C-alpha cells in the first residue's frame, strides 16, 4: 500500500497528489499538520514537513520535488518531464519558480494569513501581508500569460510538472477566491485546461474544515 | 565558451561552481549581484537571481538545482547523483534540506546580516538574527554528524551533490568564522574531506572585497 502524508494547506502536497493522480498511482492519504510534530512523523521526515510518501515497498520519500523526480524515474508510463534535456531544464526552472518564488511572494502570505488563520481560528488576517500576496499575484499571472502566448503549456508543447506545480499553488489561492482571473484571461484559459484533468477532481471536491471555497472553485467552466 | 553568472555571497552559485569543478568543466565566471537587476540580466533570468549558466551552445540555464540536474544529465563522466533510484532520492532530499532548511535557518540570517552588511557597508548586523543563525547551526552540524556516523558521505557510500550542497552553504558561514567546528568533530572531519578536493581550491583562494576570512578558512588541515 502506498501512503501519502499531506495537508490541505500545503501546495507541495497538492503537487504530489496531482502527480500521483496524473500517473494513475493508487494512494491512501493521511492528514498530517506541519505544526503537529509527533516523534513518529519526525522519524519519517526529520524536516517535519508534508508531503511524505511511503512506497508499497516501504521506501520513505520526503520533499515534494524529490518525490516527483522519484516517481518520474520509477513510473515512466505517464512522463511529466520532457525527454529532451533542455526541455527538462526549462520544466525544472519553472517548477522552482513556482515552488520558491510564487510560494514566497503569493502562496505563503495569502495561505498563512487567510486560510490558516480561518481554519485554526484566532487572530484576523494581517491586511499588509494579504495586500502583498494580492499585488504579487498579478506579475505571476502575467508571466503565465507570456508563456502560454508562446507555448501550449508552460514549459513547451506538452503538459509537464511545471503546469502541475503552478496549478497546485494557484488552486490553493483560488480556494480563497484571491486569483484575479478576469484580469488575466489567457492564464485563466490555461488553468481551465489543467483543472479539467481527472487528476484535479479529488482536490476540487475537497472542503477544508471551517472554510468554504467560492462557488467557481470546483466549476470546470467558470 | 561556458559562462557562469555568480556572486560570492550566493551559496547556490557556490554549489554550481563546485559541481563544474568536480566535473572538470571549464567556465568563465562573471560577477553578478542579485540586487543589481539590469535588463540584460533579467532577460537571461526573469527571477533576477544567480546562478545563471550559459552553455557553449548558447543554452541559458537558471536555478541552481536545475543547472545541477542538467549538468548531471549532460556530462555523465563524473556522476554526482548515485545510480540507484532510492539513493538518488536520498541525495535530492538532502540537497533540498540544505538549500531550503539550512538556507532559511542558518545561511540567510548570517550571510545577510554579517557578510552582506560588511561588504556593502552601512548598518551594523542585527544581533537577533545573528543569534538565530548561530543557534540553529548546531542542529544541522549534529545532523551531519548523525549521517556521517552511519555513512561515509552524507547520502551514502559515495560523495554526491548532497555533500557539495552542504559544503557550499557551510563554506560561506566558515568564511565569517561562524561554524563551531570544535563542538562537532565528526562534522569537521567530513568537511575537511570535501574541502580538500580540487574543486574547492578556487573558492578557498577567493577574497570577498572588504571582508577577510579567518585564518583557518583556506587551511586544509585546520
From TrEMBL, chains A, B:
Residues 84-222 form the GST C-terminal domain. Keywords: Transferase. Its EC number is 2.5.1.18. SUPFAM superfamilies: GST C-terminal domain-like, Thioredoxin-like. It comes from Novispirillum itersonii. Coiled coil: none annotated. GO terms for biological process: glutathione metabolic process. Residues 1-79 form the GST N-terminal domain. PROSITE patterns: GST_CTER, GST_NTER. This is Glutathione S-transferase. GO terms for molecular function: glutathione transferase activity. Homodimer.
